[in-house]
Specification:
binds 2-acetamido-2-deoxy-beta-D-glucopyranose, 8% helix, 5 helices, globular, Cu-oxidase-like_N, 37% strand, Immunoglobulin-like, Cu-oxidase_fam, seven-stranded mixed beta sheet, signal, L-ascorbate oxidase, six-stranded mixed beta sheet, 3 domains, glycoprotein
């Protein structure tokens, strides 16, 4: 019996209500290797997946089972994680160091994910050891099931844009800078789908409409995206179908993804697709080409201008993102049928970022705690009841006001709770926060410190839900989040230097029922390491 059959039988036996027998399986075998890449024209050792940078795209449909067998052919331990892909009941597959043992060089691990009840545009990325600076990321699309209405006609084409800042130094050199206690230098440039300027072409037919899914996969900078001579109609943000507003340009913060429709309604020629860095004194740019198939003219003229340091502009744009209440989501019911604003919250958590020096080294912290990984993944320590790996309550619900300290921080949370989370940013740089395993309603953001009175300005009717949100300088952003997914979930800065230097923690969403209805059992192929070695998986 093949792996998939066996797995499916196991699931069918274990999960009485499971429909997985009917949900299709998609198989991926990924070989992760080093290889030469030239994103900014300088030869570098990148991390490739099946020889590709960016890696192969995952194309899936709601409820598909994805079997991704990852072979690590690097000389360093490696893991892949899935930004924004919810993995319901299944933090076992999250692929971050708090949930999975690293895949050792020469070894492999098969991730088994189900994209249950989810649609939208996401990406995967390598989660360990600053590997993200070397590539190994790729697009991840979840299409609606046939028969579930999508609030726009099928586009003539569907393009993925993975853009972000880039360093000519490789990931081991960048890691050495961070390990040495310094912050990263300014990036060397921006890239689009692995290339610097004008090396990538998207070909369209005049008169047709195309979907672009744009992610910021960079390490340290927000970007602005625009297409010369064309307007963009936003249709989806990280799984939410939005009101279809039209923009000339779009700010995309670290780790975020937007879907827009673009109609090729201009004279037939080539146009610049532009990304520029945001909130930086030196403005970086990269371009790709939008080519009409009947084009006779190369792209020309000045690059279309965009915002550079304007914060109010960006905040206003963020507030203009609204949910289309009557459109379907992953299921054929209107997105407005879940009245997120009428549910009483069960707890308020205020998370404040800081940049302390600890033992003379630059670190980054949240509520004064700068996360350090334990010798054993937290999820495994929890499962095998290994004492002393982490303690619950090692990060407080409110800023403590103290300086920074190192700790393996885990916050406890009750399954079925409904929390208000406030990200408070006292620094003068933009932050971007991501919560694994959950999507949350962005109810408000504004300048200054948050207070209870800030709640009067919340959008409790039609905001979007997403998994990555920005917090402007000296500002706050508030969320409502249903704790509907049992597991050990990473909460992190999407600024990769900050994430690497401790601006993250784990949220342990716990159900006392200990039932397979709430959380899948440990996978029989789970890798063991640290103090989990020698324990046995009862399959
Ligand atoms: C991965 O690629 C490397 C380099 O091409 C090759 O030596 C190795 O056999 C491949 N491994 C697998 C599992 O395909
Ligand atoms: C990174 O670059 C340094 C030289 O700057 C080199 O010694 C090192 O081997 C490189 N590492 C990788 C993984 O390419
Ligand atoms: C490694 O790959 C083999 C198939 O080549 C598979 O049978 C095995 O389960 C994989 N190992 C893990 C830990 O997933
Ligand atoms: C909202 O979705 C509905 C249902 O699909 C669609 O008919 C309508 O055009 C959308 N409205 C806007 C403003 O996007
Ligand atoms: C784009 O960046 C290049 C350097 O990479 C620079 O020469 C050029 O002036 C920039 N263009 C704009 C419009 O900022
Ligand atoms: C929320 O709390 C208020 C006041 O405590 C109460 O009156 C109301 O019924 C609650 N609403 C829901 C939906 O539980």
């Amino acid at each position: 019996m093949g792996y998939s059959m066996r797995l499916c039988c196991v699931l069918v036996v274990l999960l009485v209500a499971c429909a997985c027998g009917e949900d299709p399986y998609r198989f991926f075998t990924w070989n992760v290797t080093y290889g030469d890449i030239y994103p900014l024209g300088v030869k570098q050792q990148g991390i490739l997946i099946n020889g590709q940078f960016p890696g192969p795209q995952i194309e899936s449909v709601t409820n598909d089972n994805l079997i991704v067998n990852v072979f690590n052919s690097l000389d360093e331990p490696f893991l892949i994680s899935w930004n924004g892909v919810l993995q319901r009941r299944n933090s076992w597959q999250d692929g971050v160091y708090g949930t999975n043992c690293p895949i050792q060089p020469g070894q492999n691990f098969t991730f088994v994910l189900q994209v249950k009840d989810q649609i939208g545009s996401y990406f995967y990325y390598p989660s360990l050891a600053f590997h993200k600076a070397a590539g190994a990321y790729g697009g991840f699309k979840i299409a609606s099931r046939p028969g579930i209405p999508v609030p726009f006609p099928p586009p003539a084409g569907d393009f993925t844009i993975l853009a972000g800042d880039w360093y000519n130094r490789n990931h081991t050199d960048l890691r050495a800078i961070l390990d040495g206690g310094s912050d990263l230098p300014f990036p060397d440039g921006l890239i689009i789908n692995g290339h610097g300027s004008n090396a990538y072409t998207f070909t369209v037919d005049q008169g047709k409409t195309y979907r672009f899914r744009i992610s910021n996969v960079g390490l340290t900078t927000s970007i602005n995206f625009r297409i010369q001579g064309h307007k963009m109609t936003i249709v989806e943000v990280e799984g939410t179908h939005t009101l279809q507003n039209t923009y000339d340009s779009l700010d995309i913060h670290l780790g975020q993804t937007y879907s827009v429709l673009v109609t090729a309604d201009q004279p037939p020629q080539d146009y610049f697709i532009v990304v520029t860095s945001r909130f930086t004194s030196q403005v970086l740019n990269a371009t790709s080409i939008l080519r009409y198939s009947n084009s006779g003219t190369r792209a020309f003229g000045p690059l279309p201008g965009g915002p550079t340091i304007q914060i109010d502009w960006s905040m206003n744009q963020a507030r203009s993102l609204r949910r289309n209440l009557t459109a379907s989501g992953p299921r054929p019911n209107p997105q407005g049928s879940y009245h997120y604003g009428l549910i009483n919250t069960t707890r308020t958590i205020v998370l404040q970022n800081s940049a302390p020096l600890i033992n003379g080294k630059q670190r980054y912290a949240v509520n004064s705690v700068s996360f350090i990984p334990a010798d054993t993944p937290l999820k495994l320590a929890d499962y095998f009841k290994i004492q002393g790996v982490f303690s619950l309550g090692s990060i407080s619900d409110y800023p403590s006001g103290g300086g920074g300290y190192l700790q393996t921080s885990v916050m406890e949370a009750d399954f079925r709770g409904y929390v208000e989370v406030v990200f408070q940013n006292p620094e003068d740089t933009v932050q971007s926060w991501h919560i694994d395993g959950h999507s949350f309603f962005v109810v408000g953001m504004d300048g200054g410190p948050w207070s209870a009175a800030s709640r009067l300005g919340y959008n409790l009717r039609d905001t979007i839900s997403r998994s990555t949100v920005q917090v402007y300088p000296r500002s706050w952003t508030a969320l409502y989040m249903p704790l509907d997914n049992v597991g050990m979930w990473n909460v992190r800065s999407e600024n990769w230097a900050r994430q690497y230097l401790g601006q993250q923690f784990y949220l342990r969403v716990y159900s006392p029922a200990n039932s397979w209805r709430d959380e899948y059992p440990i996978p029989s192929n789970a890798l063991l390491c640290g103090r989990a070695l020698g324990h046995h998986i009862r399959a």
